[in-house]
Amino acid sequence: MTSAKDSPAGQKGQPSQTESESPQLTGIRILDFSHILAGPFCTRLLADLGAEVLKVETDTRPERMGATRIDPASKRRQDRPPSFLNINRNKRSITINLKTEGGRALATQLATKADIVVENFSAEVMKRLGLAYEHLQPLNPRLIYVSMSGFGHNGPRKDWTSMNMSLQAYTGLMMVTGAEGDLPTAISNSWNDYIGGLHACHAVLQALAERERTGTGRNLDLAQFECSVATIAPLVIASAFNGEVPPRQGSRSTHAAPQGCYQCAGKDDWCAISVENDGQWKALVSRMGSPAWANEGRFSSLAGRIRHHDELDRNLEAWTRQFTPLEIENRLKPAGIACERMRRMNEIVGAPDAGNVYRWMEDPPSRTLATGLPFEFSTSTVAPLSPAPRVGEHTKAALEEWLGLSAAKIAELAATGALE
Predict the structure, then answer these.
(1) By C-alpha distance, which of 111, 107, 110 is closest to 136?
(2) C-alpha closest to that of 262 among 320, 310, 308
(3) Active-site option among 32, 48, 115, 193
């Protein structure tokens, strides 16, 4: 899939590839106004598939998102937090002052050369800047325009400010996470942003495929609130059907018992066990040495095990406490029982079973860890990893490549304040 644009695309400095080897979105240009996480995650996924992503930033207020802050003692890059470096790798950066008329005019020019525009501001921001879909579409009918606000651009909530926590609360997600009696519990790691980014990426790929047939772009209005609701659809539908609030299950399930996290030998060591049917239960009983309690009638069926889950958990944990998590794995997994030791984050990085998820990337003055796409193509490649850009690193090159501007014109734009 390639762009209709004639000017060169792709990340500067990447090795050339034959058409059969090229990433799926080679030649597609994305003008990225997004910030924080939801939009940047979407555009990073598209960059991994080969799209050229030009991130619009400001030199006076560089984006420094991330829960992990810069360690002053680190010998690694100090200009961006680690989480920013990961979510914005494989992108380029241009600094434009959108508060000036010249800066807005320049952004408009760039949008006429783009295949896709992505933004995740509040609903009215791009309209105030004169960069909304209705402003840009007449200038570029092939443009695919993606808006990713918290509540969409229509309806009574469109002007609400949204953050991950507030969306988890408003969707009801925090009241179906955790166990009965717990405080409202959020899913960690900005759940809504990642879910929103995934849905937006899917929508962009659909719009690109449609544009191949029709020759015209689309305006995609995505509400991160709706993305979050979609992920808990079975609970929402069940509640609508029976008029009751779904019980909070914690680690348990309505179709597996025993299921939960069980303490093992050692300090704060745990394993997760899930038994879905009577055959697996019999295998578990055998691996435990057929204790008398496990052969009692009330545990012989799934319904009975669910009904007596508290007692079942106590008895099972008395057994797991005798062994290390790895010993539990080695006993139960060969019998076809779903059982995994509980790992910490630092145990996952570099683990031999991590596949392509974690990859090291040269990022002077050192190397940095990045997450890759968790799938492979059989006949084409994904884009090679390149470091996240420094603020405005590609301003001159992008203006030359996208708009054909001369050095003198770029200097003039800088002098008038259009560039930062």
Answers:
(1) 111
(2) 320
(3) 193
Strands (E), 120-263: 144-147, 219-221, 259-263
**What fold does the segment set 259-346 form as a domain?**
formyl-coa transferase, domain 3 (3.30.1540)
363 vs 377: CA distance, rounded Å: 26
Interval 127-169: pLDDT, tens: 999 999 999 999 999 999 999 999 999 889 888 888 888 998 9
Q: How big is the chain, counted in residues?
A: 420
Identify the pLDDT of residue 64.
58
Distance separating alpha carbons of residues 245 and 231, to the nearest angstrom: 17
- What's the confidence (pLDDT) of residue 11? 35
Q: pTM of the full predicted structure? A: 0.86
What does CATH list as the number for 29-231+355-415? 3.40.50.10540
Q: E strands within 333-391?
A: 338-341, 358-363, 366-371
Query: What single-letter DSSP state applies at residue 344?
Result: -
Residue 307 contacts residue 298 (beta carbons within 8 Å): yes
Q: Is position 269 annotated as part of the catalytic site? A: no
Among residues 190, 184, 186, 185, which one has the least CA distance to residue 164?
190
